[in-house]
């Protein structure tokens, strides 16, 4: 299927059926996308300040270069001493011989003495126990225990107890967030290697989006898709080609392809006299990964490839465009950035509605899920079709129903939640 589009000149629209090629089923479309992804080069790395790395994707494995803790340290404010010395002191207690704070390089503890020690301070050589301040009485500069039996190692964080030098800390492909900052900083890292953000262009087209058109329409998809796809690891640029001219559309497509890693178009992929996206791309040398998918909504969705660039051609109806972006574009971009896939079908529960498909396509139903008595219940969100934008604000997941299957009230179902990158 490397070149399934007939290279018909865009000026010749006498046979639009040339673009009506055999559809693929949903699972085949996903397999073709996965295969195409494996052929793409990895996104190059860049080094950025650690403080700016939240939301970015690690470009390499990170291993510990130092133990944590780097040495034995006190777990609390208290008094450090040798257990044997305290046992021998009896009722006399141990005399104080100094104070150790975090950041100090302490001298060895003098025999038969105790020292004040603060949280995080190094354990002085010769000490093998720390007792909390509230469990001692200090009188006449001598430390006496109260209701505490000294035990070797008490309240001491041992060198390397958290991890040793060489321990794997974070894998390549890890999305960094606030939880990882202290870990990386503990290894002396001020900069980190992350994948360069993927550049995505979103392009809508159609003369109806010209504000001077006789029946001008508000373009919805670029704003919706940009908001959906944008993240710290995805940089989105949107553009509207408010024209039905193949040449002007071609210029817009070339600009998007030149300055992006992935292009997402909406509209202009059917067989009407103003649907030019696919023939223009074909004339530019793009080949077809798949043309139309046996699914509802979203059947017209098509994926093209031009060199090392992937071009998602989504339907123009906002509801169908959103669904196709959720099911195809977002998982692809997630994998492209190096992130592991979201675990599909992670919502499991019972249906509160019945549904029987009327076509031989895989149906994706907008549903809302609630929890009742410890069990998830799925409710069908009413929709007037692929152009419905209000139903998207009420739905929380997509429930897949394959051709030949049906859903009954009380049926056990799985749904894919709406995701973000």
Automatic annotation (TrEMBL):
Enzyme class: transferase
Keywords of the record: Magnesium, Metal-binding, Molybdenum, Molybdenum cofactor biosynthesis, Transferase
Catalytic activity annotation: adenylyl-molybdopterin + molybdate = Mo-molybdopterin + AMP + H(+)
Occurrences of domain MoaB/Mog (ranges): 201-335
Pathway: Cofactor biosynthesis; molybdopterin biosynthesis
Enzyme nomenclature, EC number: 2.10.1.1
Keyword check for Amino-acid biosynthesis: no
Cofactor dependence: Mg(2+)
Annotated function: Catalyzes the insertion of molybdate into adenylated molybdopterin with the concomitant release of AMP.
PANTHER family the record matches: GEPHYRIN, MOLYBDOPTERIN BIOSYNTHESIS PROTEIN
Protein family according to the UniProt entry: Belongs to the MoeA family.
Protein name: Molybdopterin molybdenumtransferase
């Amino acid at each position: 299927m490397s070149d399934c589009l007939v290279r018909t000149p865009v000026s010749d629209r006498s046979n639009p059926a040339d673009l009506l090629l055999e559809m693929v089923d949903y699972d085949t479309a996903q397999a073709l996308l996965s295969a195409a992804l494996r052929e793409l080069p990895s996104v190059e790395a860049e080094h950025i300040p650690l403080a700016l790395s939240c939301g970015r994707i690690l470009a390499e494995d990170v291993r510990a270069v130092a133990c944590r803790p780097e040495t034995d340290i006190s777990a609390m404010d208290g008094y450090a001493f040798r257990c044997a010395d305290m046992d021998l002191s009896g009722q006399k207690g141990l005399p104080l011989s100094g104070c150790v704070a975090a950041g100090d390089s302490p001298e060895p503890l003098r025999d038969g003495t105790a020292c004040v020690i603060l949280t995080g301070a190094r354990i002085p050589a010769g000490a093998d126990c720390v007792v909390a301040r509230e469990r001692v009485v200090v009188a006449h500069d001598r430390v006496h225990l109260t209701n505490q039996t000294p035990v070797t190692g008490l309240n001491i964080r041992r060198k390397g107890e958290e991890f040793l030098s060489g321990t794997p800390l974070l894998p390549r492909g890890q999305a960094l967030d606030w939880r990882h900052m202290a870990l990386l900083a503990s290894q002396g890292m001020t900069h980190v290697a992350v994948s360069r953000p993927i550049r995505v262009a979103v392009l809508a087209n159609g003369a109806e989006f010209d504000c001077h058109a006789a029946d001008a329409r508000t373009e919805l998809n670029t704003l919706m898709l940009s908001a959906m796809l944008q993240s710290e690891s995805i940089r989105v640029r949107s553009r509207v080609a408010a024209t039905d001219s193949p040449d002007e559309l071609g210029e817009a497509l070339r600009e998007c392809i030149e300055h992006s890693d992935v292009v997402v178009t909406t509209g202009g992929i059917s067989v009407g006299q103003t649907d030019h996206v696919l023939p223009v791309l074909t004339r530019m040398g793009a080949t077809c990964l798949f043309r139309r998918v046996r699914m509802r909504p979203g059947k017209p969705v098509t994926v093209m490839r031009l060199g090392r660039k992937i071009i998602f051609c989504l339907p123009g109806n906002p509801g169908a465009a959103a669904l196709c972006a959720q099911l195809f574009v977002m998982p692809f971009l997630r994998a492209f950035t190096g992130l592991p896939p979201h675990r599909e079908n992670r919502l499991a529960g019972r249906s509160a509605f019945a549904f029987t498909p009327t076509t031989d396509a895989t149906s994706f139903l907008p549903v809302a899920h609630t929890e009742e008595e410890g069990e998830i219940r799925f409710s069908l969100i009413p929709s007037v079709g692929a152009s419905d934008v209000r139903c998207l604000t009420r739905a929380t997941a997509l429930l897949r129903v394959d051709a030949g299957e049906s859903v009954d009230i009380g049926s056990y179902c799985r749904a894919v939640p709406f995701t973000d990158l």
